[in-house]
Amino acid sequence: MDFTGKRVVVTGAGKGIGRATALMLAKRGATVVALTRSQADLDTLKAEAGCEGIAVDLADAEATREAARRALPADLLVNCAGTTELQSFLDVTVEAFDLLHAVNTRAPMIVAQEYARETLGRGAKGAIVNVSSVAAFVGIPDHAAYCASKAGLDGLTRVMAKELAPKGIRVNGVHPTVTLTPMAVKAWSDPVKAAGMMGRIPVGRFADPDDVAEVILFLLSDEAAMVNGLSMPIDGGYMIA
Ligand code: NDP
């Protein structure tokens, strides 16, 4: 897949899956515009791969809209930024619930709205990939707010796919299992919990960020021209186990 001449906005490109996606896109010819929180990550992305960057807190709706507008025009969009808090259902706080929905669900909506308006406004076509999680499909203990925020994102993906594809923008979701990133360290460092999860993955390992990035690039590419509204597990078979 060659992305030469394509300009791609990637949120959460500072670390983990977003960073792997940004670097892979840049290696395959794209100009990447990274929207992420830490300036230090933007600096290293620029040094490593020439990525453009905008520092923004995606929990802030107005700042998110403003950053998205600055990042445009773009050919393609990857909504990858996400965050989590480990709280059992009985302990979920309103603050954590609101934060996770702001970053994991509302920010992708805002960035995609701006991207779609601008793209359609100039008569262009495009594609969006929203990074969800297997947590949107199953209940994972201590992930109540996270599961809800990702299931909400999937609802958006389906509506976007129905409304935007007739106008020329395909929209798909990817649903990774545990992927070896800083977020996974936060959520899965308990070896007993990790072993239980790993035991349900038939391929016998957690995902690497590049495993996820490869699928994101496929869904962005013209090779996936007939793929729209997909919820694509990247889970080594976890969902059938
Ligand atoms: P990481 O925590 O490794 O990286 C997340 C990136 O998003 C960081 O660059 C982070 O910036 C940025 N980010 C987080 N919150 C904000 C914010 N409020 N404003 C701006 N940027 C922000 O996460 P992963 O790479 O693991 O996860 C990427 C996506 O994949 C997420 O949507 C996650 O839910 C999903 N996912 C991850 C899985 C996993 O096991 N890792 C499994 C399934 C799905 P900073 O560090 O500066 O805060």
Automatic annotation (TrEMBL):
Ketoreductase domain: residues covered: 6-175
Keywords from the named record: NADP
Alphabetical list of InterPro entries matching this protein: KR_dom, L-xylulose/Carbonyl_redctase, NAD(P)-bd_dom_sf, Sc_DH/Rdtase_CS, SDR_fam
Record GO terms (molecular function): carbonyl reductase (NADPH) activity; L-xylulose reductase (NADPH) activity
Superkingdom field: Bacteria
BP GO annotations: glucose metabolic process; xylulose metabolic process
Family as reported in the entry's similarity comment: Belongs to the short-chain dehydrogenases/reductases (SDR) family.
Subunit structure as annotated in this protein's UniProt entry: Homotetramer.
PANTHER family per record: D-ERYTHRULOSE REDUCTASE, D-ERYTHRULOSE REDUCTASE-RELATED
Protein's recorded name: SDR family oxidoreductase
Protein source organism: Plantimonas leprariae
